């Protein structure tokens, strides 16, 4: 049975964090400089560091993901949507936080929005989205 | 940059899970199929209200309904949930790998 509306998979968020022995400015550079991004995010990265800017990630196996930048908060947070060809888009949020002893980088990828993103839904920020994520996370773990 | 208003969440799945009664019904159905009557019994709301919630969950693709004699039996569809955990495992592993490579890149 097709669901009424457009979403056919649950949206859920995966989060990973890492403590890096590096200054936040260096970490921010590694997150926003396409040359550095090409060393860890994908094999080849193009990034226009501006809201609405294009994102392209290519992998050695030929896979390509394309998307656009959703948010740039200088030295603190980068967010972009991306999708594999023919797949549903997801939202990637990268936070850079200074801590004693270095920098914590947190990445969250939220997938399954389907047509919400495809329809050019503009800003996805807001408490509504945050609380929906919490709701969905609980159901998935139940 | 974009001036479009904040969108309403689209998709019946979002609406389905935004209600605490419906989340309770999903948890209850995770133990096995049930009827509106059976599911309503422990709740302080009417059978009709539960039936409406179940209809909404069915339209969202989260539960399946089938006739069993004169009653309708509702059952959780596992697909959205197993897809969800497979996705979480795969994407989680991807990011763990990337963050290790980031650490190597920074020598940090």
Summarize it.
The complex is a heterodimer of chains A (142) and B (108). Chain A is α+β, with helices and mostly antiparallel strands. In chain A, 25% of the residues lie in helices and 39% in strands.
Index terms:
heterodimer, A: 142 residues, alpha+beta, 7-stranded antiparallel β-sheet, 25% helix, globular, disordered N terminus, B: 108 residues, 5 helices, 58% helix
Describe the structure.
The complex is a heterodimer of chains A (142) and B (108). Helix content of chain A is 25%, strand content 39%. By secondary structure, chain A is α+β, with helices and mostly antiparallel strands. In chain A, a hairpin with a 3-residue loop joins strand 4 (64-73) and strand 5. Chain A starts with 11 loop residues before the first strand and ends with a helix. In chain A, 36% of the residues are buried. Chain B is elongated and about 65 Å long. Chain B has 108 residues and is α+β, with helices and mostly antiparallel strands. Chain B contains five helices and three strands. The chains are: A alpha+beta (142), B alpha+beta (108). At the A-B interface, strand 1, helix 1, helix 2, strand 7 and helix 4 of A face helix 1, helix 2 and helix 5 of B.
Question: What share of the residues of chain A lie within helices?
Answer: 10-25%
**End-to-end separation of chain A:** 23 Å
Radius of gyration of chain B: 20 Å
Order of helices and strands of chain B: HHEHHEEH
Order of the strands making up the biggest sheet of chain B: 1-3-2
Strand content of chain A: 35-45%
Helix content of chain B: 55-70%
The end-to-end span of chain B amounts to 35 Å
Mean pLDDT of chain A: 77
Oligomer: heterodimer
For the sheet with most strands of chain A, the description reads: 7 strands, antiparallel
> How many DSSP helices of chain B?
5
Uncertain ranges of chain A:
1-10, 114-142
> Biggest interface, and residues per chain?
A-B, 54 and 46 residues
- Per the principal axes of the C-alpha atoms, what is the gross shape of chain B? elongated
